[in-house]
């Protein structure tokens, strides 16, 4: 997945995108007290290997640390640009999410007074700051096993939780919020492909499906259980509803 030119309210909320190995209880959106997140050092991304830069200097098609870092930064910049344009179209002002923070250990980073667990990516809003955080080891592993498209989906999904906050959307069950975020992530990516901002490589659509299956709930998990995100079929359907139909495919009411 490439970008042309290689361009790189007072609510407390922690929303997580969970790998299948993470207990659902760790993924709940939890009201937090009035406290800001910690300020850990941002660790180096794990991994290694030879850089596979192409003739144009791009790194797409490799699974190196360099491409991982480039794709995370590119996905964040793309989401900033996409949602800024959409909010301008709504006639509304827009404040981009401040940063995407890498972490490696349980408890290294917190959202308010809640420690963020490993094998996760989260959106956090406190009275002090707003950020996306991701376990660099887990994200890099899925990047290598699933593909680079997963990183654009991961950032897009967590960014979508910030959009839900900005639009003051509320959901009775966590699964509704999570599937809606999958749809918004699909819209951000599908629209970016259609307008030429993002270029798909062969197999990228299949990578989206594999990535969604990786973070899906066990089929036996009750849909109404707090922290439920959806089965693989539900998450894939929600994502591609947004991908194919743009924001019209997502419930923004």
Structure description:
With 253 residues, the chain is α+β, with helices and mostly antiparallel strands. It has one domain (4-35, 63-249). The chain has six helices and six strands. The chain has helices spanning 65-90, 136-145, 149-166, 174-194, 204-214, 232-245; strands at residues 13-18, 100-103, 110-111, 114-115, 120-125, 130-135. Strands 1-5-6-2 form a four-stranded mixed β-sheet. It has a two-stranded antiparallel ribbon with strand order 3-4. β5 (120-125) and β6 form a beta hairpin. α3 packs across α4, α4 (174-194) crosses α6 (232-245) and α5 (204-214) runs antiparallel to α6. The longest helix has 26 residues, at 65-90. The chain starts with 12 loop residues before the first strand and ends in an 8-residue tail after the last helix. 45% of the residues are buried.
Key phrases:
253 residues, alpha+beta, 4-stranded mixed beta sheet, 40% helix, 10% strand
Overview in brief:
By secondary structure, this protein is of the alpha+beta class. It is 40% helix and 10% strand. It has helices at 65-90, 136-145, 149-166, 174-194, 204-214, 232-245; strands spanning 13-18, 100-103, 110-111, 114-115, 120-125, 130-135.
Poorly predicted parts: 5-14, 18-60
**CA gyration radius, whole angstroms:** 17 Å
Helix share of residues? 25-40%
DSSP strand (E) fraction?
A: 5-15%
Tally of helical runs:
6
Any idea how many domains? Answer: 1
The main sheet comes to: 4 strands, mixed
Average pLDDT works out at 79
**What is the helix/strand order?**
EHEEEEEHHHHH
End-to-end Cα distance, whole Å, is 31 Å
What order do the strands of the largest sheet run in, or round the barrel if closed? 1-5-6-2
Estimated structural class: alpha+beta
Q: Strand tally, please?
A: 6
Shape descriptor: globular
């Amino acid at each position: 997945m490439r970008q042309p030119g290689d361009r790189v309210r007072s609510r407390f909320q922690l929303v997580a995108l969970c790998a299948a190995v993470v207990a659902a209880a760790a993924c709940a959106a939890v009201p937090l007290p009035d406290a800001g997140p910690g300020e850990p050092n941002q660790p180096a991304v794990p991994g290694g290997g030879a850089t596979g830069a192409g003739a144009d200097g791009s790194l797409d098609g490799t699974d190196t640390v360099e491409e991982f870092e480039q794709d995370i930064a590119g996905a964040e910049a793309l989401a900033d640009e996409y949602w800024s344009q959409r909010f301008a179209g709504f006639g509304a002002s827009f404040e981009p999410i401040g940063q995407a923070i890498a972490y490696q250990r349980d408890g290294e980073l917190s959202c308010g007074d809640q420690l963020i667990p490993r094998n996760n990516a989260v959106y956090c809003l406190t009275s002090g700051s707003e950020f996306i955080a991701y376990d660099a080891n887990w994200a890099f592993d899925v990047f290598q096993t699933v593909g680079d498209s997963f990183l654009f989906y991961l950032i897009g999904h967590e960014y979508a939780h910030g959009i839900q906050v900005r639009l003051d959307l509320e959901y009775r069950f966590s699964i509704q919020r999570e599937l809606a975020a999958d749809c918004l992530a699909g819209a951000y990516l599908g629209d970016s492909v259609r307008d030429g901002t993002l270029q798909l490589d062969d197999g990228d659509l299949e990578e989206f499906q594999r990535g969604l299956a990786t973070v899906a709930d066990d089929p036996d998990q009750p849909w109404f259980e707090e922290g439920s995100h959806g089965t693989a079929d539900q998450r894939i359907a929600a994502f591609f509803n947004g991908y194919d139909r743009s924001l019209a495919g997502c419930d923004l009411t």
